[in-house]
Amino acid sequence: MTDTAPLSGLLSADPRVVTAGAALFADALSAQAAPVEQVDWRPPADGTETALARVMADPRRNEANAKAVERLLSATAQLVDVRPAHEVLGIEKGTFFHAGPPIAWDRTSGPLRGALIGGMLLEGLADTPEEAERLLEKGDGITLDPCHHHRTVGPMAGVVTPSMWMFELEDTEHGGRAWCSINEGLGKVLRYGAYSSEVIERLRFMSDVVGPLLGQAVRKHGAIDIKAIIAQMLQMGDEGHNRNRAGTLMFLREILPDLIELDVPSSQVAECVRFVSGNDHFFLNLDMPACKLATDAARDIPGSTMVVTMARNGTDFGIQTAGTGDTWFTGPAQLADGLFLGSYGPDDANPDIGDSAITETGGIGGFSMAAAPAIVRFVGGAVPDALATTRRMYEITLAESRAYQIPILEFRGAPTGIDVTKVVRTGILPQINTGMAGKVAGTGQVGAGLVTPPAECFAAAIEGLAQLAPPL
Predict the structure, then answer these.
(1) 141 in any annotated domain
(2) pTM, entire model
């Protein structure tokens, strides 16, 4: 195969060899000193050929994706307040938001059931876990709704109840708002499905002390640029999903003077600071809504094939695209592969759960693992795996972030804007790093690891996009 040069120049041009498929052939040619250009080509997923051809031929696609990318990259993320969920979201007792796509009680996973039981206890709707479970199963006066349907994101089970305090972030460029609860920490916590008395007591302390003080401090300080902190934390060894140490400390440094100057007992300030500084994952619940703002800015662009949501409820994994509105495309949630705590093992783990994959959807988390090689000590693998993962994600994305850069890759922008067509054409699935919840309600966290979405999500999304594309 040669360059498309004029016929008169073909005989004098140096020949080029292009190979696709197994590397063995390319290696053999290279050993003979032949110039080889290896193309990483794979056939599209079975059954997607017709739909993929229609989507690829959509005359709106390139312009729509360019618009989606620009909106995603230009979105801002300012923390403007911390307020109770009933105040900012209008959520009433008996209504629970949860992570992932819609699901009914009878299909809920163990950790989501445990978190809902804990939510019932927290809100005083039941006196015992057994009573809470009976009421949830009966369903009278109980409403379950995805966080994403309310511009909200929740890690792991993602359960939001009326009394929880929420971070409120604003995109000043596009006018969007997004919310996320305050991070509890690791171990036996509600988001991992635990609901013991210590879990409920911690949540009440957060509502009585941490939330109100943070709200006062943020209002005193003025808007805090969360996007700028994310950009800095990537330079400092965080990736924004399972490693948030630098982000947490930078946020605390920003807000600490305002906390100290509040007209409240110093003991309460000390308790609040101790809570934030003792939780390396605290900033996760700020970078999640920041990414939610960016991807929401790219919604509702006809013809765009960019993914704007990846979320899991512990049973189903769902995605949404910029070109298909609020439609969910789902497949079975997968088990993560990683490291386990104590005596826990694979048999103890629930399939993947949580809205925190919004970080990967926005270009950080698993997509920026090269910025945080130490993450492999938490999720498994080796440092070269972290570098290879980020390089691989460039193959399925539409752009490189202008704000989020990766030092070890010569400050290359993080791979951003997952393209459904590229996923289907290459067979490369988005890489997510995640915590693992115990599959039995009440267990809590059992480990952390790496996981990908089911390929069915992307095949279904291609079909959905094809149905909306102009006829060939």
Answers:
(1) yes
(2) 0.91
